[in-house]
Amino acid sequence: KTWKTSNDPDFVAKMRRILDLYDHPPAGGRVVCVDEFGPLNLQPRPGKAWKPQGEPVRLRATYHRDHGVRHMIASLDLATGRIHYRIRDRKRSIEFLDFLKSLRRRWPGEKLHLILDNFSPHKHPNVRAWCAANAVELVFLPTYSSWLNWIEAEFAALRYFALNGTDHRSHAEQDAAIGDYIRWHNQRAKPKTGYA
User: Fold this and answer.
1) What confidence tens digit (pLDDT) does each residue in 82-134 have?
2) What are the distances in angstroms from CA 152 to CA 52, 63, 148?
3) How far is Cα of residue 136 from the mean position of the Cα atoms in its chain?
4) Residue 9: cis peptide before it, omega within 30 degrees of 0
């Protein structure tokens, strides 16, 4: 819907590095796209939904944010096309580092090349120190270039299939819908190739 041109002075070099990782994954390494999705608040979401003919979906006209918001941290493994995620109440460097540790346990012995945006928790000194000590390379997107992160396309599909046309009344219900979609996706996942 909108477009903002990157003002990153290193745009071309950063873009080429990311596209090279997409096209030529390093031997002995794994390329993983990481980002946050949300906030996940409880609200009626317009969109299409399956209903019997003559029974349209009715959404609340008003709602209250009595239950707070949650956040999803997710990764897309390009070698398999599978999504891994965690839903948390906050999205600080502590939660992000915990998620990175889960990725490290998932692929021991491989160097991880993580493509991610410039969100401040991604650049926290504790995160950088842990990554340097655990064979994790942080590959940052150029500013205003979220479209270069392949996981964004998966988030669009998740929003369309799991959230559009819903009116979840609890975070547990909404989390279950997201989990159901990701399990369905992962059962059919294929390696990601040919970004361009």
Assistant:
1) 999 999 989 999 999 999 999 999 999 999 999 999 999 999 999 999 999 99
2) 32, 28, 8
3) 18
4) no
Amino acid at 25: P
pTM attached to this predicted model: 0.87
The token pair at 101 is 């540790």
- For residue 146 the two structure tokens come to 């979220």
Quick check: 115 and 141 in contact, CB under 8 A?
A: yes
More confident residue, 120 or 169: 120
Per-residue pLDDT tens digits for 6-53: 888 999 999 999 999 999 999 989 999 999 988 887 766 656 655 666
Burial of residue 119, with CB atoms counted within 10 A of its CB: 0-12 exposed, 13-18 middle, 19 or more buried: middle
Separate counts of helices (H) and strands (E) for the chain: 5, 5
The span from the CA of 62 to the CA of 168, in Å, is 13
Cβ(29)–Cβ(112) under 8 Å? yes
Helix H or strand E encompassing 99:
helix 93-106
Say how many residues make up the chain.
Answer: 196
- Which amino acid, one-letter code, is at 66? D
List the one residue out of 166, 159, 163, 161 whose CA is nearest residue 184.
Answer: 161
